[in-house]
Protein backbone atom coordinates (compact mmCIF):
# COMPACT_ATOMS: atom_id res chain seq x y z
CA UNK A 1 0.00 0.00 0.00
CA UNK A 2 1.72 3.38 0.06
CA UNK A 3 2.09 5.08 -2.96
CA UNK A 4 0.78 1.86 -4.21
CA UNK A 5 0.75 -1.74 -3.31
CA UNK A 6 1.88 -4.70 -5.31
CA UNK A 7 1.18 -8.38 -4.91
CA UNK A 8 -1.86 -8.59 -2.77
CA UNK A 9 -3.00 -5.15 -3.26
CA UNK A 10 -0.33 -2.63 -3.49
CA UNK A 11 -1.77 0.76 -2.95
CA UNK A 12 -0.64 4.11 -2.39
CA UNK A 13 1.64 6.69 -1.38
CA UNK A 14 4.30 6.39 1.32
CA UNK A 15 7.86 7.13 0.19
CA UNK A 16 10.82 5.04 1.87
CA UNK A 17 14.41 6.14 2.56
CA UNK A 18 17.45 4.29 1.30
CA UNK A 19 20.57 4.82 -0.76
CA UNK A 20 21.41 1.67 -2.71
CA UNK A 21 22.63 2.29 -6.26
CA UNK A 22 21.05 0.62 -9.27
CA UNK A 23 22.72 -2.58 -10.35
CA UNK A 24 24.92 -2.59 -13.40
CA UNK A 25 23.26 -3.85 -16.58
CA UNK A 26 22.87 -7.58 -16.15
CA UNK A 27 21.92 -10.72 -18.02
CA UNK A 28 22.60 -11.95 -21.51
CA UNK A 29 20.49 -9.13 -22.91
CA UNK A 30 22.77 -6.41 -21.55
CA UNK A 31 25.73 -6.73 -23.86
CA UNK A 32 27.68 -3.56 -24.61
CA UNK A 33 28.36 -4.34 -28.28
CA UNK A 34 25.13 -3.01 -29.78
CA UNK A 35 24.30 0.68 -30.01
CA UNK A 36 20.89 1.73 -28.65
CA UNK A 37 18.35 1.87 -31.46
CA UNK A 38 14.62 2.43 -31.75
CA UNK A 39 12.05 -0.19 -32.65
CA UNK A 40 10.32 -3.33 -31.34
CA UNK A 41 7.81 -3.74 -28.53
CA UNK A 42 7.94 -5.20 -25.06
CA UNK A 43 4.96 -7.13 -23.75
CA UNK A 44 5.18 -6.96 -19.98
CA UNK A 45 2.95 -9.08 -17.75
CA UNK A 46 1.07 -7.44 -14.90
CA UNK A 47 -0.91 -9.44 -12.36
CA UNK A 48 -3.86 -7.12 -11.76
CA UNK A 49 -5.82 -4.64 -13.84
CA UNK A 50 -5.68 -1.02 -12.66
CA UNK A 51 -8.97 0.41 -11.49
CA UNK A 52 -8.05 3.75 -13.09
CA UNK A 53 -5.20 5.56 -14.82
CA UNK A 54 -5.95 8.84 -13.08
CA UNK A 55 -2.87 9.44 -10.87
CA UNK A 56 -4.85 11.21 -8.16
CA UNK A 57 -7.45 8.52 -7.57
CA UNK A 58 -5.74 5.29 -8.63
CA UNK A 59 -4.48 3.20 -5.73
CA UNK A 60 -2.40 0.36 -7.17
CA UNK A 61 1.22 -0.05 -8.11
CA UNK A 62 0.38 -1.36 -11.56
CA UNK A 63 -1.55 1.85 -12.25
CA UNK A 64 1.44 3.88 -11.10
CA UNK A 65 3.89 1.94 -13.25
CA UNK A 66 1.75 2.59 -16.34
CA UNK A 67 0.99 6.23 -15.54
CA UNK A 68 4.52 7.10 -14.52
CA UNK A 69 5.90 8.25 -11.19
CA UNK A 70 8.80 9.69 -9.25
CA UNK A 71 11.16 7.01 -10.60
CA UNK A 72 9.83 6.34 -14.11
CA UNK A 73 8.22 8.46 -16.82
CA UNK A 74 5.58 6.99 -19.06
CA UNK A 75 2.34 8.90 -19.68
CA UNK A 76 2.34 11.52 -16.93
CA UNK A 77 5.26 13.44 -15.48
CA UNK A 78 6.03 15.41 -12.34
CA UNK A 79 7.95 18.65 -11.90
CA UNK A 80 10.91 16.77 -10.41
CA UNK A 81 12.14 13.19 -10.65
CA UNK A 82 14.49 11.06 -8.57
CA UNK A 83 18.15 11.28 -9.57
CA UNK A 84 19.35 7.86 -10.87
CA UNK A 85 22.66 8.30 -9.04
CA UNK A 86 20.94 7.52 -5.72
CA UNK A 87 17.17 7.42 -6.43
CA UNK A 88 16.69 9.92 -3.61
CA UNK A 89 17.98 13.33 -4.75
CA UNK A 90 15.43 15.31 -6.84
CA UNK A 91 16.33 16.54 -10.34
CA UNK A 92 14.33 18.77 -12.74
CA UNK A 93 11.75 17.26 -15.08
CA UNK A 94 8.75 19.48 -15.94
CA UNK A 95 10.39 22.20 -13.84
CA UNK A 96 13.50 23.97 -15.12
CA UNK A 97 15.30 23.42 -11.82
CA UNK A 98 14.76 22.47 -8.24
CA UNK A 99 12.61 25.06 -6.41
CA UNK A 100 13.73 28.19 -4.64
CA UNK A 101 13.07 27.47 -0.96
CA UNK A 102 12.66 30.14 1.71
CA UNK A 103 14.88 30.01 4.77
CA UNK A 104 11.91 29.08 6.96
CA UNK A 105 10.91 26.21 4.61
CA UNK A 106 7.45 27.71 4.13
CA UNK A 107 7.55 28.76 0.47
CA UNK A 108 8.69 26.84 -2.61
CA UNK A 109 8.91 28.58 -5.97
CA UNK A 110 9.06 26.49 -9.15
CA UNK A 111 9.72 27.64 -12.70
CA UNK A 112 7.95 25.50 -15.28
CA UNK A 113 9.79 24.23 -18.35
CA UNK A 114 8.92 26.00 -21.61
CA UNK A 115 8.12 24.26 -24.91
CA UNK A 116 6.41 21.14 -23.48
CA UNK A 117 3.16 19.94 -25.05
CA UNK A 118 0.48 17.51 -23.99
CA UNK A 119 -0.03 14.37 -26.08
CA UNK A 120 -3.02 16.05 -27.80
CA UNK A 121 -0.80 18.93 -28.93
CA UNK A 122 -2.00 21.52 -26.40
CA UNK A 123 0.75 23.51 -24.61
CA UNK A 124 1.70 22.57 -21.08
CA UNK A 125 1.57 25.60 -18.76
CA UNK A 126 1.86 26.57 -15.11
CA UNK A 127 -1.95 26.64 -15.03
CA UNK A 128 -1.92 22.85 -15.40
CA UNK A 129 0.21 22.58 -12.26
CA UNK A 130 -2.12 24.88 -10.33
CA UNK A 131 -5.11 22.87 -11.56
CA UNK A 132 -3.57 19.57 -10.45
CA UNK A 133 -3.03 20.79 -6.91
CA UNK A 134 -6.49 22.35 -6.78
CA UNK A 135 -7.97 19.03 -7.85
CA UNK A 136 -5.89 17.14 -5.32
CA UNK A 137 -7.24 19.12 -2.36
CA UNK A 138 -10.86 19.26 -3.55
CA UNK A 139 -12.88 17.45 -0.84
CA UNK A 140 -15.10 15.57 -3.30
CA UNK A 141 -12.16 14.10 -5.22
CA UNK A 142 -11.55 10.48 -4.17
CA UNK A 143 -7.86 10.90 -3.34
CA UNK A 144 -7.61 10.73 0.46
CA UNK A 145 -4.19 8.96 0.40
CA UNK A 146 -2.64 11.77 -1.65
CA UNK A 147 -4.48 14.51 0.21
CA UNK A 148 -2.90 13.29 3.44
CA UNK A 149 0.40 14.70 2.16
CA UNK A 150 -1.14 18.10 1.40
CA UNK A 151 -2.84 18.88 4.70
CA UNK A 152 -0.49 21.80 5.35
CA UNK A 153 -0.56 23.26 1.84
CA UNK A 154 -2.06 26.73 2.27
CA UNK A 155 -1.82 28.20 -1.20
CA UNK A 156 -0.53 27.78 -4.75
CA UNK A 157 -0.17 31.00 -6.75
CA UNK A 158 0.66 31.71 -10.37
CA UNK A 159 3.35 34.38 -10.52
CA UNK A 160 4.76 35.77 -13.74
CA UNK A 161 4.47 33.47 -16.72
CA UNK A 162 5.99 30.14 -15.77
CA UNK A 163 6.47 30.58 -12.03
CA UNK A 164 4.39 29.14 -9.20
CA UNK A 165 4.74 29.74 -5.49
CA UNK A 166 3.65 27.12 -2.97
CA UNK A 167 2.99 28.23 0.61
CA UNK A 168 2.77 25.71 3.43
CA UNK A 169 1.56 26.04 7.00
CA UNK A 170 4.63 24.53 8.61
CA UNK A 171 7.96 23.02 7.60
CA UNK A 172 7.94 19.42 6.40
CA UNK A 173 11.08 17.49 5.49
CA UNK A 174 9.40 15.99 2.40
CA UNK A 175 7.83 19.15 0.98
CA UNK A 176 10.12 19.36 -2.07
CA UNK A 177 9.54 15.69 -2.86
CA UNK A 178 5.77 15.83 -2.29
CA UNK A 179 5.27 19.00 -4.31
CA UNK A 180 7.83 18.25 -7.00
CA UNK A 181 8.04 14.46 -7.40
CA UNK A 182 4.97 12.98 -5.84
CA UNK A 183 2.37 14.89 -7.85
CA UNK A 184 1.95 13.85 -11.48
CA UNK A 185 0.71 16.87 -13.41
CA UNK A 186 -2.62 16.54 -15.22
CA UNK A 187 -4.06 18.59 -18.12
CA UNK A 188 -6.52 21.27 -17.07
CA UNK A 189 -8.10 21.52 -20.53
CA UNK A 190 -9.01 17.81 -20.40
CA UNK A 191 -10.26 17.45 -16.84
CA UNK A 192 -11.81 20.87 -16.26
CA UNK A 193 -12.95 22.26 -19.63
CA UNK A 194 -15.80 24.08 -17.91
CA UNK A 195 -13.39 25.92 -15.63
CA UNK A 196 -15.20 24.83 -12.48
CA UNK A 197 -12.04 25.37 -10.42
CA UNK A 198 -11.10 28.67 -12.08
CA UNK A 199 -13.29 30.84 -9.91
CA UNK A 200 -12.30 29.19 -6.65
CA UNK A 201 -9.19 30.52 -4.95
CA UNK A 202 -6.87 27.86 -3.59
CA UNK A 203 -7.25 28.82 0.10
CA UNK A 204 -11.04 28.58 -0.24
CA UNK A 205 -10.83 24.99 -1.50
CA UNK A 206 -9.02 23.82 1.62
CA UNK A 207 -11.19 25.88 3.99
CA UNK A 208 -14.21 24.57 5.81
CA UNK A 209 -16.45 26.09 3.12
CA UNK A 210 -14.78 23.97 0.44
CA UNK A 211 -16.87 20.90 1.30
CA UNK A 212 -20.09 22.85 0.70
CA UNK A 213 -19.11 24.61 -2.53
CA UNK A 214 -21.44 23.32 -5.28
CA UNK A 215 -18.85 23.91 -8.02
CA UNK A 216 -16.26 21.86 -6.14
CA UNK A 217 -18.78 19.10 -5.54
CA UNK A 218 -19.71 19.05 -9.23
CA UNK A 219 -16.05 19.00 -10.25
CA UNK A 220 -15.23 16.10 -7.94
CA UNK A 221 -18.14 14.00 -9.17
CA UNK A 222 -17.07 14.54 -12.79
CA UNK A 223 -13.38 14.06 -12.07
CA UNK A 224 -13.84 10.75 -10.24
CA UNK A 225 -15.73 9.29 -13.23
CA UNK A 226 -14.02 11.16 -16.05
CA UNK A 227 -13.66 9.12 -19.28
CA UNK A 228 -9.98 10.09 -19.49
CA UNK A 229 -9.38 8.14 -16.30
CA UNK A 230 -9.19 5.25 -18.77
CA UNK A 231 -7.54 7.21 -21.59
CA UNK A 232 -4.90 9.48 -20.03
CA UNK A 233 -3.30 12.41 -21.85
CA UNK A 234 0.10 13.34 -20.46
CA UNK A 235 3.41 14.95 -21.39
CA UNK A 236 5.64 11.88 -21.04
CA UNK A 237 7.78 9.80 -23.41
CA UNK A 238 4.93 7.31 -23.99
CA UNK A 239 1.35 8.04 -25.05
CA UNK A 240 -1.71 6.05 -24.13
CA UNK A 241 -2.76 3.87 -27.07
CA UNK A 242 -5.62 1.66 -25.92
CA UNK A 243 -7.05 -0.34 -23.02
CA UNK A 244 -8.67 -3.68 -23.76
CA UNK A 245 -10.45 -4.41 -20.49
CA UNK A 246 -9.26 -7.60 -18.86
CA UNK A 247 -6.58 -8.10 -21.50
CA UNK A 248 -3.96 -5.39 -21.95
CA UNK A 249 -3.04 -1.71 -21.89
CA UNK A 250 -0.86 -0.32 -24.70
CA UNK A 251 1.45 2.69 -24.68
CA UNK A 252 3.11 4.07 -27.82
CA UNK A 253 6.35 6.05 -28.00
CA UNK A 254 5.79 9.80 -28.11
CA UNK A 255 7.94 10.88 -31.04
CA UNK A 256 7.26 14.55 -30.20
CA UNK A 257 8.49 14.12 -26.62
CA UNK A 258 10.37 17.17 -25.34
CA UNK A 259 13.08 15.14 -23.57
CA UNK A 260 15.02 11.93 -24.16
CA UNK A 261 12.79 9.56 -26.08
CA UNK A 262 12.35 5.89 -25.30
CA UNK A 263 13.69 3.27 -27.71
CA UNK A 264 10.77 0.83 -27.81
CA UNK A 265 7.92 1.59 -30.19
CA UNK A 266 5.32 0.23 -27.80
CA UNK A 267 5.06 -0.95 -24.22
CA UNK A 268 2.26 -3.44 -23.70
CA UNK A 269 1.02 -4.33 -20.22
CA UNK A 270 -0.72 -7.69 -20.56
CA UNK A 271 -3.00 -8.63 -17.67
CA UNK A 272 -2.47 -12.24 -16.54
CA UNK A 273 -3.50 -12.77 -12.94
CA UNK A 274 -2.64 -16.45 -12.67
CA UNK A 275 1.06 -17.09 -12.07
CA UNK A 276 1.10 -20.44 -13.86
CA UNK A 277 -0.62 -18.98 -16.92
CA UNK A 278 1.86 -16.09 -16.89
CA UNK A 279 4.86 -18.43 -17.05
CA UNK A 280 3.21 -20.44 -19.80
CA UNK A 281 2.65 -17.23 -21.77
CA UNK A 282 6.30 -16.25 -21.32
CA UNK A 283 7.58 -19.60 -22.57
CA UNK A 284 5.14 -19.48 -25.51
CA UNK A 285 6.36 -16.05 -26.57
CA UNK A 286 3.06 -14.32 -25.74
CA UNK A 287 4.83 -12.03 -23.26
CA UNK A 288 8.43 -10.83 -23.23
CA UNK A 289 8.80 -10.14 -19.55
CA UNK A 290 7.38 -11.37 -16.27
CA UNK A 291 8.64 -9.14 -13.44
CA UNK A 292 6.80 -11.20 -10.83
CA UNK A 293 7.77 -14.83 -11.13
CA UNK A 294 6.38 -17.02 -8.39
CA UNK A 295 9.16 -18.17 -6.06
CA UNK A 296 8.70 -21.80 -7.11
CA UNK A 297 8.97 -20.73 -10.75
CA UNK A 298 12.23 -18.91 -10.13
CA UNK A 299 13.66 -21.79 -8.08
CA UNK A 300 12.47 -24.81 -10.06
CA UNK A 301 10.63 -24.01 -13.29
CA UNK A 302 12.86 -21.60 -15.21
CA UNK A 303 15.98 -23.61 -15.94
CA UNK A 304 17.24 -25.88 -18.67
CA UNK A 305 18.57 -25.20 -22.15
CA UNK A 306 15.19 -24.50 -23.77
CA UNK A 307 14.44 -21.70 -21.30
CA UNK A 308 17.96 -20.34 -20.87
CA UNK A 309 18.53 -20.01 -24.61
CA UNK A 310 15.69 -17.51 -24.84
CA UNK A 311 15.36 -15.90 -21.44
CA UNK A 312 17.41 -14.36 -18.67
CA UNK A 313 16.20 -14.16 -15.07
CA UNK A 314 17.21 -12.12 -12.07
CA UNK A 315 16.17 -11.49 -8.45
CA UNK A 316 15.73 -7.89 -7.34
CA UNK A 317 14.65 -6.09 -4.20
CA UNK A 318 12.08 -3.32 -3.77
CA UNK A 319 10.87 -1.50 -0.64
CA UNK A 320 7.84 -3.70 0.04
CA UNK A 321 6.43 -5.64 2.96
CA UNK A 322 3.64 -8.19 3.24
CA UNK A 323 1.27 -8.04 6.19
CA UNK A 324 -1.87 -9.17 7.94
CA UNK A 325 -4.06 -6.17 8.78
CA UNK A 326 -6.23 -6.33 11.92
CA UNK A 327 -9.23 -4.00 11.79
CA UNK A 328 -9.40 -2.47 15.26
CA UNK A 329 -13.04 -1.56 14.78
CA UNK A 330 -13.74 -5.26 15.41
CA UNK A 331 -13.90 -6.45 19.05
CA UNK A 332 -11.38 -9.26 18.44
CA UNK A 333 -8.52 -6.93 17.59
CA UNK A 334 -8.89 -4.03 20.03
CA UNK A 335 -6.47 -5.49 22.63
CA UNK A 336 -2.79 -5.44 21.72
CA UNK A 337 -2.30 -8.74 23.57
CA UNK A 338 -4.60 -10.39 21.04
CA UNK A 339 -2.70 -8.85 18.14
CA UNK A 340 0.60 -10.01 19.65
CA UNK A 341 -0.86 -13.51 20.04
CA UNK A 342 -1.99 -13.61 16.43
CA UNK A 343 1.52 -12.75 15.27
CA UNK A 344 2.96 -15.50 17.48
CA UNK A 345 0.60 -18.00 15.84
CA UNK A 346 2.12 -17.34 12.40
CA UNK A 347 5.27 -19.34 11.60
CA UNK A 348 6.73 -16.70 9.30
CA UNK A 349 10.06 -18.43 8.71
CA UNK A 350 8.28 -21.61 7.66
CA UNK A 351 6.10 -19.60 5.29
CA UNK A 352 9.21 -18.00 3.77
CA UNK A 353 10.87 -21.36 3.27
CA UNK A 354 7.86 -23.25 1.92
CA UNK A 355 5.90 -20.60 0.00
CA UNK A 356 8.67 -18.14 -0.92
CA UNK A 357 11.50 -20.68 -1.39
CA UNK A 358 13.68 -18.45 0.77
CA UNK A 359 13.05 -15.29 -1.28
CA UNK A 360 12.15 -13.12 1.72
CA UNK A 361 13.18 -12.00 5.19
CA UNK A 362 10.92 -11.77 8.25
CA UNK A 363 9.56 -8.24 8.55
CA UNK A 364 9.68 -6.30 11.79
CA UNK A 365 8.44 -2.83 10.91
CA UNK A 366 7.08 -0.44 8.31
CA UNK A 367 10.60 0.58 7.20
CA UNK A 368 12.53 -1.83 5.03
CA UNK A 369 15.99 -3.22 5.86
CA UNK A 370 18.81 -1.34 4.21
CA UNK A 371 17.16 2.00 4.89
CA UNK A 372 18.63 4.23 7.56
CA UNK A 373 15.25 4.69 9.24
CA UNK A 374 14.80 0.95 9.82
CA UNK A 375 15.23 0.10 13.53
CA UNK A 376 17.71 -2.75 13.55
CA UNK A 377 17.22 -3.32 17.28
CA UNK A 378 13.70 -4.71 16.96
CA UNK A 379 13.51 -8.48 17.24
CA UNK A 380 10.62 -10.23 15.49
CA UNK A 381 8.09 -11.86 17.79
CA UNK A 382 8.74 -15.62 17.75
CA UNK A 383 6.45 -18.35 16.56
CA UNK A 384 5.19 -19.41 19.98
CA UNK A 385 1.66 -20.94 20.16
CA UNK A 386 2.01 -21.58 23.90
CA UNK A 387 2.73 -17.93 24.73
CA UNK A 388 0.03 -16.87 22.27
CA UNK A 389 -2.51 -18.95 24.17
CA UNK A 390 -1.45 -17.31 27.44
CA UNK A 391 -1.90 -13.84 25.93
CA UNK A 392 -5.35 -14.72 24.63
CA UNK A 393 -6.31 -16.00 28.11
CA UNK A 394 -5.00 -12.79 29.70
CA UNK A 395 -7.09 -10.73 27.27
CA UNK A 396 -10.23 -12.63 28.33
CA UNK A 397 -10.64 -14.71 25.17
CA UNK A 398 -11.30 -18.11 26.70
CA UNK A 399 -13.42 -21.07 25.55
CA UNK A 400 -16.08 -20.58 28.21
CA UNK A 401 -18.68 -22.94 26.69
CA UNK A 402 -16.14 -25.59 25.63
CA UNK A 403 -17.21 -25.63 21.98
CA UNK A 404 -13.63 -25.34 20.76
CA UNK A 405 -13.86 -21.60 19.99
CA UNK A 406 -12.61 -18.92 22.35
CA UNK A 407 -15.16 -16.30 23.32
CA UNK A 408 -15.47 -13.12 25.36
CA UNK A 409 -18.65 -11.44 26.63
CA UNK A 410 -20.66 -13.98 24.66
CA UNK A 411 -18.90 -13.16 21.36
CA UNK A 412 -17.09 -16.11 19.74
CA UNK A 413 -13.62 -15.40 18.30
CA UNK A 414 -14.74 -15.89 14.72
CA UNK A 415 -13.58 -13.57 11.96
CA UNK A 416 -13.10 -13.39 8.20
CA UNK A 417 -9.71 -12.95 6.52
CA UNK A 418 -10.04 -11.05 3.25
CA UNK A 419 -7.66 -11.55 0.35
CA UNK A 420 -7.28 -10.85 -3.35
CA UNK A 421 -8.37 -13.67 -5.66
CA UNK A 422 -5.59 -12.73 -8.09
CA UNK A 423 -2.80 -13.43 -5.59
CA UNK A 424 -1.38 -16.94 -5.75
CA UNK A 425 0.44 -16.32 -2.48
CA UNK A 426 -2.78 -15.40 -0.68
CA UNK A 427 -4.39 -18.62 -1.88
CA UNK A 428 -1.50 -20.56 -0.36
CA UNK A 429 -1.29 -18.54 2.85
CA UNK A 430 -4.88 -18.42 4.06
CA UNK A 431 -5.33 -22.20 4.62
CA UNK A 432 -2.12 -22.20 6.69
CA UNK A 433 -3.40 -19.34 8.85
CA UNK A 434 -6.81 -20.96 9.21
CA UNK A 435 -5.26 -24.15 10.61
CA UNK A 436 -2.87 -22.38 12.99
CA UNK A 437 -5.67 -20.22 14.37
CA UNK A 438 -8.01 -23.23 14.64
CA UNK A 439 -5.51 -25.02 16.89
CA UNK A 440 -5.51 -21.94 19.13
CA UNK A 441 -9.31 -21.86 19.42
CA UNK A 442 -9.91 -19.15 16.81
CA UNK A 443 -12.30 -19.67 13.90
CA UNK A 444 -11.01 -17.91 10.80
CA UNK A 445 -12.97 -18.05 7.57
CA UNK A 446 -11.40 -17.03 4.27
CA UNK A 447 -12.84 -14.92 1.50
CA UNK A 448 -10.94 -14.08 -1.66
CA UNK A 449 -12.47 -11.47 -3.91
CA UNK A 450 -11.65 -9.62 -7.10
CA UNK A 451 -8.73 -7.21 -6.75
CA UNK A 452 -10.53 -3.87 -7.13
CA UNK A 453 -13.35 -5.01 -4.82
CA UNK A 454 -10.74 -6.03 -2.27
CA UNK A 455 -9.16 -2.57 -2.37
CA UNK A 456 -12.53 -0.86 -2.01
CA UNK A 457 -13.43 -3.09 0.95
CA UNK A 458 -10.20 -2.19 2.72
CA UNK A 459 -10.57 1.54 2.06
CA UNK A 460 -14.16 1.47 3.30
CA UNK A 461 -13.25 -0.58 6.44
CA UNK A 462 -15.60 -3.37 5.31
CA UNK A 463 -13.40 -6.19 6.54
CA UNK A 464 -12.32 -7.99 9.71
CA UNK A 465 -8.76 -8.76 8.70
CA UNK A 466 -6.88 -8.63 5.42
CA UNK A 467 -3.83 -10.21 3.80
CA UNK A 468 -2.04 -7.50 1.89
CA UNK A 469 1.21 -5.70 1.17
CA UNK A 470 2.54 -2.15 0.99
CA UNK A 471 5.03 -1.03 -1.62
CA UNK A 472 6.81 2.30 -1.38
CA UNK A 473 9.26 4.75 -2.86
CA UNK A 474 12.73 5.40 -1.47
CA UNK A 475 11.94 8.35 0.77
CA UNK A 476 9.17 7.76 3.24
CA UNK A 477 6.78 9.36 5.66
CA UNK A 478 4.58 6.73 7.44
CA UNK A 479 1.94 9.37 8.26
CA UNK A 480 -0.30 8.34 5.34
CA UNK A 481 -0.81 4.82 6.62
CA UNK A 482 -0.56 5.20 10.38
CA UNK A 483 -1.86 8.59 11.52
CA UNK A 484 -5.40 8.65 12.91
CA UNK A 485 -6.26 11.45 10.44
CA UNK A 486 -5.97 8.83 7.68
CA UNK A 487 -8.83 6.70 9.04
CA UNK A 488 -11.70 8.73 7.62
CA UNK A 489 -12.59 9.55 4.01
CA UNK A 490 -11.12 6.32 2.60
CA UNK A 491 -7.64 7.14 3.83
CA UNK A 492 -4.87 4.55 4.09
CA UNK A 493 -5.28 3.76 7.80
CA UNK A 494 -7.64 0.91 6.94
CA UNK A 495 -7.28 -0.76 10.32
CA UNK A 496 -8.46 2.31 12.28
CA UNK A 497 -5.29 2.35 14.37
CA UNK A 498 -5.55 5.16 16.92
CA UNK A 499 -2.67 5.99 19.21
CA UNK A 500 -1.98 9.50 20.48
CA UNK A 501 1.73 8.88 21.04
CA UNK A 502 2.11 7.45 17.54
CA UNK A 503 0.35 10.50 16.08
CA UNK A 504 2.59 12.83 18.07
CA UNK A 505 5.79 11.19 16.85
CA UNK A 506 4.65 11.10 13.23
CA UNK A 507 3.81 14.80 13.40
CA UNK A 508 7.13 15.60 15.08
CA UNK A 509 9.11 13.68 12.45
CA UNK A 510 7.46 15.61 9.63
CA UNK A 511 8.96 18.90 10.83
CA UNK A 512 12.42 17.56 11.70
CA UNK A 513 14.94 18.37 8.94
CA UNK A 514 17.94 16.87 10.73
CA UNK A 515 17.96 13.31 9.42
CA UNK A 516 19.71 11.83 12.46
CA UNK A 517 17.15 13.36 14.83
CA UNK A 518 14.29 12.27 12.57
CA UNK A 519 15.72 8.75 12.51
CA UNK A 520 15.67 8.61 16.29
CA UNK A 521 12.00 9.60 16.27
CA UNK A 522 11.22 6.88 13.76
CA UNK A 523 13.18 4.28 15.73
CA UNK A 524 11.11 5.04 18.84
CA UNK A 525 7.94 5.02 16.75
CA UNK A 526 8.79 1.55 15.40
CA UNK A 527 9.23 0.30 18.97
CA UNK A 528 5.71 1.51 19.74
CA UNK A 529 4.31 -0.17 16.61
CA UNK A 530 6.16 -3.36 17.48
CA UNK A 531 4.54 -3.37 20.92
CA UNK A 532 1.07 -2.64 19.51
CA UNK A 533 1.25 -5.11 16.57
CA UNK A 534 -1.52 -3.39 14.58
CA UNK A 535 -0.21 -5.40 11.64
CA UNK A 536 1.40 -8.78 11.68
CA UNK A 537 4.41 -7.89 9.55
CA UNK A 538 5.01 -11.04 7.51
CA UNK A 539 8.12 -10.51 5.40
CA UNK A 540 10.15 -8.28 3.11
CA UNK A 541 10.06 -10.09 -0.25
CA UNK A 542 12.73 -10.47 -2.88
CA UNK A 543 11.14 -10.38 -6.31
CA UNK A 544 12.30 -12.35 -9.35
CA UNK A 545 11.96 -11.46 -13.03
CA UNK A 546 12.45 -13.22 -16.34
CA UNK A 547 12.77 -11.45 -19.69
CA UNK A 548 13.61 -12.23 -23.31
CA UNK A 549 17.32 -12.03 -24.09
CA UNK A 550 16.87 -9.79 -27.12
CA UNK A 551 16.51 -6.81 -24.77
CA UNK A 552 19.67 -4.88 -23.93
CA UNK A 553 20.62 -2.18 -21.43
CA UNK A 554 18.71 -4.15 -18.81
CA UNK A 555 19.36 -3.16 -15.20
CA UNK A 556 17.56 -3.68 -11.91
CA UNK A 557 16.90 -0.65 -9.75
CA UNK A 558 16.26 -0.26 -6.01
CA UNK A 559 13.27 1.99 -6.69
CA UNK A 560 9.85 0.90 -7.90
CA UNK A 561 9.06 -0.71 -10.28
CA UNK A 562 12.64 -2.05 -10.22
CA UNK A 563 13.38 -1.41 -13.89
CA UNK A 564 13.17 1.43 -16.43
CA UNK A 565 11.74 0.32 -19.77
CA UNK A 566 12.53 3.73 -21.26
CA UNK A 567 16.20 2.73 -21.56
CA UNK A 568 15.75 -0.88 -22.75
CA UNK A 569 16.28 -1.51 -26.47
CA UNK A 570 16.55 -4.30 -29.02
CA UNK A 571 19.21 -4.37 -31.77
CA UNK A 572 17.67 -4.14 -35.24
CA UNK A 573 18.62 -7.68 -36.19
CA UNK A 574 16.83 -9.11 -33.14
CA UNK A 575 13.61 -7.06 -33.27
CA UNK A 576 10.39 -9.07 -33.23
CA UNK A 577 7.52 -6.61 -33.60
CA UNK A 578 7.12 -4.14 -36.47
CA UNK A 579 4.22 -2.26 -37.97
CA UNK A 580 3.60 -5.21 -40.33
CA UNK A 581 3.86 -8.18 -37.98
CA UNK A 582 2.55 -6.77 -34.69
CA UNK A 583 -0.37 -8.62 -33.22
In short:
27% of the residues lie in helices and 18% in strands. By secondary structure, the chain is of the alpha+beta class.
Keywords:
583 residues; alpha+beta; D-Maltodextrin-Binding Protein, domain 2; 3 domains; six-stranded mixed β-sheet; four-stranded mixed β-sheet; disordered N terminus
Could you describe the 3D structure shown?
With 583 residues, the protein is of the alpha+beta class. It folds into three domains: 17-53 and 237-316 and 547-583, D-Maltodextrin-Binding Protein, domain 2 (3-Layer(aba) Sandwich); 77-229, Dipeptide-binding Protein, domain 1, CATH 3.90.76.10; 320-541, Dipeptide-binding Protein, domain 3. The chain is 27% helix and 18% strand. It has helices spanning 61-67, 126-137, 144-147, 175-182, 188-191, 202-205, 214-224, 275-283, 295-301, 305-308, 336-344, 348-355, 385-394, 424-439, 451-459, 479-482, 500-510, 515-532; strands at 41-46, 80-82, 90-92, 100-101, 107-111, 153-158, 163-168, 238-244, 248-253, 266-271, 289-290, 311-316, 320-326, 360-362, 407-408, 411-412, 414-420, 443-449, 465-471, 535-541, 543-548. Strands 14-20-13-19-17-18 form a six-stranded mixed sheet. Strands 1-10-9-8 form a four-stranded mixed sheet, with no helix packed on it. It has a four-stranded antiparallel sheet with strand order 4-5-7-6, with helices on one face. A hairpin with a 3-residue loop joins strand 8 (238-244) and strand 9. Helix 11 (336-344) packs antiparallel against helix 13 (385-394). The relative contact order is 0.19. Residues 1-32 have low confidence and may be disordered.
Amino acid sequence: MTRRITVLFLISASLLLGCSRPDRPTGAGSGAAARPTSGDWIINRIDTEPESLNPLISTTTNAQYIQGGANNSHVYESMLQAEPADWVTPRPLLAESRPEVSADHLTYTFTIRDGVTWHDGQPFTAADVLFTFKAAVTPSVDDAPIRSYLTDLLNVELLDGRKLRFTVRKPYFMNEIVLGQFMLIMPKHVFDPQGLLDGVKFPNIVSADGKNNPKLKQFGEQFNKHPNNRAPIGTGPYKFDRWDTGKEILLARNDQYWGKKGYLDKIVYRIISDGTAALTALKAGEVDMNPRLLPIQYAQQTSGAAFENQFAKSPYTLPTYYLLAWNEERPFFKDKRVRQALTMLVDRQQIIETLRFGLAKIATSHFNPGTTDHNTGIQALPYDPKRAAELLDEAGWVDHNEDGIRDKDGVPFRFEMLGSSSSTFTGQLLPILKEEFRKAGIDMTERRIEFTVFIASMRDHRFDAGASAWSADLVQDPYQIWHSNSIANRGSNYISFRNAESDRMLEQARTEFDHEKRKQIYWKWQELIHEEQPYTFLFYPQEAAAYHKRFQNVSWLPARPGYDLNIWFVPKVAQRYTATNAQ
